[in-house]
UniProtKB/TrEMBL annotation:
GO terms for cellular component: cytoplasm; nucleus; proteasome core complex, beta-subunit complex. It comes from Apatococcus lobatus. Component of the proteasome, a multicatalytic proteinase complex which is characterized by its ability to cleave peptides with Arg, Phe, Tyr, Leu, and Glu adjacent to the leaving group at neutral or slightly basic pH. The proteasome has an ATP-dependent proteolytic activity. Belongs to the peptidase T1B family. It is found in: Cytoplasm; Nucleus. Keywords: Cytoplasm, Nucleus, Proteasome. GO terms for biological process: proteasome-mediated ubiquitin-dependent protein catabolic process. It holds the Pfam family Proteasome. Component of the proteasome complex. This is Proteasome subunit beta.
Length: 205
């Protein structure tokens, strides 16, 4: 089993009309042994930017604290929140700086660019190679089934409620086909004015 599959994870981000959504499953396990059903893998950087981290649980916690610290320093210096595209470059350079002993994580970044409020989605590997997407991005241990669900269900210019419904169905259906992720999910829908967070019940067998 790959070290990326040691704890299990499923993260999905999806773009809508001036909104973006990101969600993850809630399972924490050691291979096929489930330890907890309330382990969130999506972290807030600020109100218009969220970071999903799939991979080894210890590395995800360490990296989130590191990124949050650096964003706080950025906010103190610049007196504004960091843009999602700028934050993606910072995450990429941080991961690449440890390329000879990498963190075992697969980040997914979802946010709204200030001013235009256009969605920004990107993902990267453990070395920081960025891949942007106009529609959706997935990471974790169930990428094949998640990609299949997202490709079949996503439509452009979804409203926030429609976006929540589509992402939720994709996430729940995708994790049903993966033994080391699932057991419930949490979804954040980010709009210009608010962040809507909902917890989903999933199969627990």
């Amino acid at each position: 089993m790959s070290i990326f599959e040691y704890n299990g994870a499923a993260v999905v981000a999806m773009a809508g009309k001036n909104c973006v959504a990101i969600g993850s499953d809630l399972r924490l396990g050691v291979q096929f042994q489930t330890l907890a059903c309330d382990y969130k893998k999506v972290y807030p950087i600020h109100d218009h930017l969220y970071l999903g981290l799939a991979g080894l649980g210890t590395d995800t916690q360490t990296l989130f604290q590191k990124f949050k610290f650096h964003h706080n320093i950025y906010r103190l210096k610049e007196e504004r929140d960091i843009k999602p595209s700028t934050f993606a470059q910072f995450v990429s350079s941080t991961l690449y700086s440890k390329r000879f002993g990498p963190w075992f994580v697969s980040p997914v970044i979802a946010g709204l660019e200030p001013g235009t409020w256009t969605p920004y989605l990107c993902g990267m590997d453990s070395l920081g190679a960025i891949e942007t997407a106009p529609d959706f991005m997935v990471a974790g241990t169930a990428p094949d089934s998640l990609y299949g669900m997202c490709e079949s269900m996503h439509k452009p210019d979804l409203e926030p409620e429609e976006l929540f419904e589509v992402l939720s169905q994709c996430l729940l259906a995708g994790t049903d086909r993966d033994a080391i992720s699932g057991w419930g999910a949490i979804v954040h829908v980010i709009t210009k004015d608010q962040v809507i967070t909902r917890t989903l019940k999933g199969r627990m067998d």
